[in-house]
């Protein structure tokens, strides 16, 4: 159980980081298009 919980925690953290990076890149692209 401990290994499964650790893997799920790592995967969820990676997904969160990826979403943040995609959001930041999307916002910068929008700002460049607007400006």
TrEMBL record:
What are the alphabetically sorted keywords of the record? Answer: Membrane, Mitochondrion, Transmembrane, Transmembrane helix
User: Per the record's keyword annotation, is Transmembrane helix included, yes or no?
Assistant: yes
Segments crossing the lipid bilayer = 6-30
* Protein name per its UniProtKB record: Nad dehydrogenase 1
